[in-house]
Design goal:
This protein has 352 residues and is mainly α. The chain contains 15 helices and five strands.
Length: 352
C-alpha cells in the first residue's frame, strides 16, 4: 500500500483522537463537531473537545444542579438553563482547577480567553440552529488581552546559533557525541526554519519529493489544506544539499521512507523533537530568551519585513490568511517605519 502523505496521516490520527474524546462527551456534541468540520482543522476540533470537557467538568463539580449527573447525561435543555453569571463563575474557575490529585491547571488571560471562545462558538452554533433558545455566552466578554512582546533573535544571535549548530563548541561531552551524528541534519533543519519561516508542523511534514532544487522551493501543506511552494535562498539550498547526501545513506523504518528529516531511530521527526532541538541549541547562544520554533518563524518574519517593508508579502510567505494577523504581530515595526518616514519627504531645500 502506498505511503500516505504526512498531513493525511496526521488528519486520520486526529480524527481517531477526536472520536475517542467524543465518546466521553454528551451525545449532542457530535452534531456540533460535524457542523464545524468544513471550516476547521482537525487540530482545532480536538482543542474544542478538550475545552468543552473542562466546561462540563466544571458544571458537575461546581454547580449543585448537576452534581448527581455524569458528563454524558448533560442535555441541551441543561445548557439552556445556564446564565451569564454561571459563565463568569466558569472564568473564575479556569484560573486554577485540578483533575485529580496530581493534575493541576493554571490559566492566564490567554488560556481563559481561548476556552471561553470555544464555548462561545459552541453556543453560537446551537443557537443559530435554533436548538437552544438562549445564548448566555454572547453576554460574557472575553478577558482583555495584554499585548505580548514578540521574542525573536537578533541578527548576531542568528549567526551565533547557526555557528553553534555547525560546531557544537559550547556543548557538553555527552551532547557532542549525539551532535556528531545529527550535525548535518540539524544545520539543514535550523537553516530551513530560519530561512523560510515554516511552521514546525510544516517542516516535519516535508517529504523528500517536496524539495525542488531546480526552483529552490519546498512544497508545504498549510492550515486549511492549502498547498503552496515556499522558496528558499542559497544558504538553505547548500545546507539541504549537504543533508540530502547524508539522507541517501539512511534506511528508514517502514512507513517513514519518504520523510525528509529523520530521527536517530530513522523515523520521521516529531514536532516535539524539533522543539527540543531548537531549545537545546538556543540555550547555548541566548539563555535568557525562551526560543521555540515559532520564535524562529517570528525572526524570519521580522527580517523579511525590515528588508522589504511589504506587510502583504510577509503575510503571504508566512501563510497568514488575514494580513491583520501579520500586522498585529509586527505593529511595533510598522510604527518604527512610520516614524522614520517623517523626514523622507523634503518640502524645501535648505539654504546653504
Amino acid at each position: 500500500m502506498e505511503q500516505r502523505p504526512y498531513y493525511e496521516q496526521t488528519d486520520i490520527e486526529n480524527t481517531q483522537k477526536l472520536r475517542k474524546l467524543l465518546s466521553s462527551l454528551p451525545p449532542f456534541c457530535g452534531t456540533f463537531f460535524r457542523g464545524i468540520e468544513q471550516e476547521t482543522s482537525s487540530r482545532t476540533r480536538i482543542a474544542y473537545a478538550y475545552d468543552l470537557r473542562v466546561f462540563f467538568e466544571f458544571l458537575l463539580k461546581e454547580n449543585p444542579v448537576y452534581k448527581n449527573k455524569e458528563i454524558k447525561d448533560i442535555t441541551l435543555s441543561d445548557l439552556d438553563r445556564i446564565k451569564a453569571l454561571d459563565l463568569e463563575e466558569y472564568m473564575e474557575y479556569l484560573k486554577y482547577y485540578s483533575n485529580g490529585e496530581n493534575t493541576e491547571h493554571i490559566n492566564k488571560e490567554r488560556g481563559i480567553s481561548r476556552k471561553l471562545s470555544s464555548l462561545k462558538t459552541f453556543y453560537n452554533y446551537f443557537y443559530k440552529k435554533e436548538m437552544l433558545s438562549t445564548n448566555p455566552a454572547a453576554l460574557v466578554s472575553l478577558p482583555k488581552l495584554h499585548s505580548k512582546e514578540i521574542i525573536r533573535l537578533d541578527v548576531d544571535e542568528v549567526a551565533s546559533l547557526l555557528d553553534q549548530v555547525e560546531s557544537g563548541d559550547a556543548m557538553t561531552e555527552r551532547q557532542r557525541a549525539f551532535h556528531k551524528k545529527t550535525r548535518v541534519r540539524d544545520l539543514a533543519l535550523m537553516t530551513l526554519l530560519l530561512g523560510t519561516g515554516l511552521r514546525v508542523s510544516e517542516c516535519v511534514g516535508l517529504d523528500i519529493r517536496d524539495v525542488d532544487f531546480k526552483n529552490d522551493g519546498v512544497r508545504v501543506h498549510r492550515k486549511g489544506g492549502k498547498e503552496v511552494v515556499v522558496y528558499f535562498g542559497e544558504e538553505v539550498r547548500e545546507a539541504l544539499l549537504d543533508y540530502m547526501e547524508e539522507r541517501k545513506k539512511k534506511i528508514p523504518v517502514s512507513g517513514h521512507e519518504q520523510a525528509l528529516f529523520l530521527s536517530l531511530q530513522d523515523k520521521r521527526m516529531s514536532v516535539k523533537s524539533v522543539e527540543n532541538l531548537v531549545k537545546k541549541y538556543a540555550r547555548l547562544v541566548t539563555p535568557l530568551k525562551k526560543i521555540t520554533p515559532h520564535k524562529l518563524r517570528s525572526t524570519y518574519g521580522t527580517t523579511l519585513y525590515q528588508e522589504t517593508g511589504d506587510i502583504y508579502l510577509v503575510a503571504d510567505v508566512l501563510g497568514h490568511s488575514d494580513v491583520n494577523t501579520t500586522r498585529k504581530h509586527y505593529a511595533a515595526l510598522e510604527e518604527h517605519r512610520r516614524r522614520s518616514a517623517r523626514n523622507a519627504v523634503r518640502l524645501r531645500e535648505k539654504p546653504e
